[in-house]
Amino acid sequence: MTDRVQEILSWFGSENPGVLANLYRMLMTGTLAGTGKMVMLPVDQGFEHGPARSFAPNPPGYDPRYHFQLALDAGCNAHAAPLGAIEMGAREYAGQLPLILKANNSDLLYSGEDPIPAVTASVDDALRLGCAAIGFTIYPGSANRNEMYEQIREMAWEAKQAGLVVVIWSYPRGSGLSKEGETAVDVVAYAAHIAAQLGAHIIKVKPPTAHIEQPKSGEALQKAGVKLDTLADRVRYVVQAAFDGHRIVIFSGGETKTTEDVLEQNRQIAAGGGFGTIMGRNSFQRPHDEAVKLLRDVMDIYAQAAK
Amino acid sequence: MTDRVQEILSWFGSENPGVLANLYRMLMTGTLAGTGKMVMLPVDQGFEHGPARSFAPNPPGYDPRYHFQLALDAGCNAHAAPLGAIEMGAREYAGQLPLILKANNSDLLYSGEDPIPAVTASVDDALRLGCAAIGFTIYPGSANRNEMYEQIREMAWEAKQAGLVVVIWSYPRGSGLSKEGETAVDVVAYAAHIAAQLGAHIIKVKPPTAHIEQPKSGEALQKAGVKLDTLADRVRYVVQAAFDGHRIVIFSGGETKTTEDVLEQNRQIAAGGGFGTIMGRNSFQRPHDEAVKLLRDVMDIYAQAAK
Amino acid sequence: MTDRVQEILSWFGSENPGVLANLYRMLMTGTLAGTGKMVMLPVDQGFEHGPARSFAPNPPGYDPRYHFQLALDAGCNAHAAPLGAIEMGAREYAGQLPLILKANNSDLLYSGEDPIPAVTASVDDALRLGCAAIGFTIYPGSANRNEMYEQIREMAWEAKQAGLVVVIWSYPRGSGLSKEGETAVDVVAYAAHIAAQLGAHIIKVKPPTAHIEQPKSGEALQKAGVKLDTLADRVRYVVQAAFDGHRIVIFSGGETKTTEDVLEQNRQIAAGGGFGTIMGRNSFQRPHDEAVKLLRDVMDIYAQAAK
Amino acid sequence: MTDRVQEILSWFGSENPGVLANLYRMLMTGTLAGTGKMVMLPVDQGFEHGPARSFAPNPPGYDPRYHFQLALDAGCNAHAAPLGAIEMGAREYAGQLPLILKANNSDLLYSGEDPIPAVTASVDDALRLGCAAIGFTIYPGSANRNEMYEQIREMAWEAKQAGLVVVIWSYPRGSGLSKEGETAVDVVAYAAHIAAQLGAHIIKVKPPTAHIEQPKSGEALQKAGVKLDTLADRVRYVVQAAFDGHRIVIFSGGETKTTEDVLEQNRQIAAGGGFGTIMGRNSFQRPHDEAVKLLRDVMDIYAQAAK
Amino acid sequence: MTDRVQEILSWFGSENPGVLANLYRMLMTGTLAGTGKMVMLPVDQGFEHGPARSFAPNPPGYDPRYHFQLALDAGCNAHAAPLGAIEMGAREYAGQLPLILKANNSDLLYSGEDPIPAVTASVDDALRLGCAAIGFTIYPGSANRNEMYEQIREMAWEAKQAGLVVVIWSYPRGSGLSKEGETAVDVVAYAAHIAAQLGAHIIKVKPPTAHIEQPKSGEALQKAGVKLDTLADRVRYVVQAAFDGHRIVIFSGGETKTTEDVLEQNRQIAAGGGFGTIMGRNSFQRPHDEAVKLLRDVMDIYAQAAK
Hints:
5 copies of one chain form a homopentamer. Helix content of chain A is 45%, strand content 13%.
């Protein structure tokens, strides 16, 4: 164990050793082991956006085991996926890499203004499948937010009892927000804070834009002289909003981008003190070897930042 | 134990010794120990108003442990916060001060006309984190009020079985009330009474204005010759409305004010027989030493009033 | 035990001895013990109408214990109040008079067209607090009536298992009725019948006016030659509607009246065979000694009627 | 309520108002109401010794309702009996006198060296039958004592939650003791203490003899100069052993005796500060009127002692 | 909080903050607050040895509240007693000192060769009575030991979930051991180790003699050159056996001794690094003021040792 990992574990004094052990595993796996940084491979896009949009660009990805292997090949800290996908690879890859069971999911065959995912897996599933963590999406800004918050309260309690890490995807969305507001820096910071207050160990948010959604938040930030010009600045603020950097905040990559865009984005995240990234489409939609290279290059960025 | 604390405990004849023991702890902790008065530090504003508005004015407050330490340094009777914040500091500060687990919370990323917070923590959480009390917000005036009342009925029952104190934040708000009515003296008194009837041991309300929202209440008060001119007068009436002063009614400070405004407000609360204050933004948004001084000065006011 | 009480108990052949024992206690307590008549003191007005309108006219009533003492001093059969008020006095007055735990309550800070109270107490609360009965309000005429009927079905079932008496406040109100219709004799009779059908042992209704809300009911009554001219006539009909007088139907007094009005109203109720009254504001808003005298005078009326 | 009853209730600060209300009823019922003394009628001998030995001497006693009536006629504080007998009379006598549901029983068709009764009724039974208390026998000295202690721990917890009084019959018996030791003063005092430690509100023991079973106890008593010559002396010591007189200790009458023996025994119990007696065979095996007279004479003794 | 208390708390990394908070309270209460040493007052001897042997030497001790007051007056860290005794004082002394609910108990009216206490209280009882800890006796050496180990496994799990400290009285006794072996140094050390392995936070053992019960243990100790000549030596070894001094091992005083014997014994315990003592008969069997003086003198010994 490195000093940094020890320091990170020390932030979770209310958790039992079982939670710490799984968090340790996630922090000590793969290329970034011991750095306190994390690059994860999430593949719930089949469920979230449909298989065509997700896997047609690189058809081997239709087989969930492809992603287990990709995560292993690239040295990711963990692989996150919905129930069925985890079930597909859990025996074959048992013990080979930390798994995050994505416990709620939305699909695009119905989409209301105020989203709420279905709860699609349980803590029992996570245990029987050998997962290190559960993942759960909340949509602050949705009229249905309370139901999601209450679901994760119960599930997080149960997960922690069982020694599982809790990862919250906190994605502002719904009738309470403008479209631009979903990635506004004040809103992303708020969303990260809500996830921390709900007891998340790892928080996934989107890279924040310079947009300000709530005027009073903007005023407070301006008055305090908080720099928000670059993505690195904004990442720094979002990390601060999650208990002053004492929760693990990682950033998702979003839609497919050029390699350089991906790298530049991660350079900014790393510069701002972000803990890492969870990169789906930009990895698994590339051919295998390209994906491995890209993931490795991204890991290099974080490895440098950790020094 | 002082005579006054013994007297206060005697009002709770239906509770078990476990509840009394935790109430005793809250009344016998800190600068005001034994006076029967209470000054508490609540920090749920990060969740309720967002991290920018809450912590940008004094950035050390992004770390929840800052508030544990501030409450200790100033000698507060207790510190109240949501689940994640309590989890952040509970091991480090275990046993050092009474904690109130705020068990429901709202955020501003969605706000309907008729508010209802999400239930974000449980009695089991309060026990595992070593809390002395649960805190719960109700919004009388909201179309969703019944759901909140029913949630706290169940949670209060469970808390009392487990020996925990029940603190209700009773904030009138929603489509049943005008904006001005939210702090109208008749409405605040009514809200304090509802909390008492729901079984609260400690009731937090806002300082009441001279506005009257419900004409019939106004007539009754006028006919009875109830003086409502000064804040002290109105506090006196609100305390009376909570079982003739036999429940612990404390007042929140509200938005940031000048030091003199805070002190004057508390002088009035103390003069009216209020049991104390729960002062968040006016303390933690000041620099640490200023905050400690202000909290101590406020405590002095109540200590004087208790003589 | 008197013959009359024995006769009344004989109407409840489906209830267990625990329910009968508590009903016996209510019928054998106070000034009217043994007569089969009941005068009760209900104090839920603080919750229902707010503390100002309820207690400003006689400020000692802000303390719930005042009402326990008033009920005892006057020799009432029972005292009804919400959870918090019962908790305030239950230890001090343990065993001294039958208590009815009012298990649902509304407040006036929000009022929709179709009322539904919040469930604010449970059968477990009634047992731990030593109550003889639970009280529950239904609003026939409200679009939400079914939810109330279903809540009391469940709670009544549980209460009867535990040997508790079930008292239903049946107050027609809501979008299904005109304002005048709320106390129309056909509606009040209908409401009493619904309460009886829901399994109530004691039914509280308002004194019916001569208004007829539902034409077909009016026709049927007219055709059958039912006399409805005086309040006594109408009370007789309402009592008949509740299983031909085999459920205990009592009448509430409503808003504050002159002493003579109160007495005259009760003379009519008694003359019509009503089982008694549950008199809140007309008692506790008078000074203590006046209230005791008035309650005693009302009891005299029923005592005479019982001969 | 008398001062003495108030004082007695004050000893049970850990119980809820429901328990106090039922204890109040037992203390405020019958001839000895308000004195703090109790004379109860227990009839479990049919189960314990068989119907012939129990009821042949006075055949009306074969009908359980005879005993309800006898207890009423004599003004007993309560009547205790097993499930079936309570079921036989509970409706007819509902509410007329406090009932103690004897919740475990032994029979003589099998008798091992180390007795343990069967659990024959539950807290749910007590509630549905309108009982004020459960009664439970423990046999300290039996190799099976632990099982009994653990049964009453669970049942007492449940009874107290439901507001029921807990009466423990503490009868030393079994292979750990000599026959003479069963009523030895040191053993009876020890048995009373065990019942108090198990959470009993009312403790029933046998009148102690001057025999000492455990030499070390004898030495301690002698060294302390405890007077044990008369039954009154020994009763005083047994009462002291039950939390220095702060639990209600009553004494059973045992086998049939002459009237004078019964009276003399109770004079001694009263002189020693015993709280009363629970007198079965010596009352119900006598003809009804003799039994009433004897019970009344015994009550007189306690009434005198209470002055 | 002192460094030493902080250090002690750091040994319990697998416990939640609730357990730490209660342990903190026990370590920060009374005369020895902050030293890391503990002197507790246990009074279960009434149950364990009978009231005569326990309380006849100092009769005020028959009232359980005497011991609450004695513990307070002397500044003990905690008071331990069975259910009934805790129920007797819990309301009056609510919050004033940490309470340990002794959850199993034996009596001497039956004593088999292989002892096993009855489980006489529950975690729910501890919570409703406001206790900081449960106490539980195991008898290693008894044929029934496994049942005790399994009972405490379940109860300790439940207690820790609820934030309660677990105190194990580990008293070797039963057919597996000679009488002399019960306090043999190898056996006492073994018993302390078993308690530590069962998850105890605080372990109570008897002062060990120089006797060796198990030859192989003796050989190992001799070979390793472990000094066992003085009580201080043996205490040092027993403390080492409990996770190298990282569990809180306290020593009981046993039967009544002269004051000098008590002091000398505690000097040895302190010299050997024992964490303190739990002293029943030697305190409560003395007159109150003598007892307070003795307890204070013993506390002085530990306070000196802590410097």
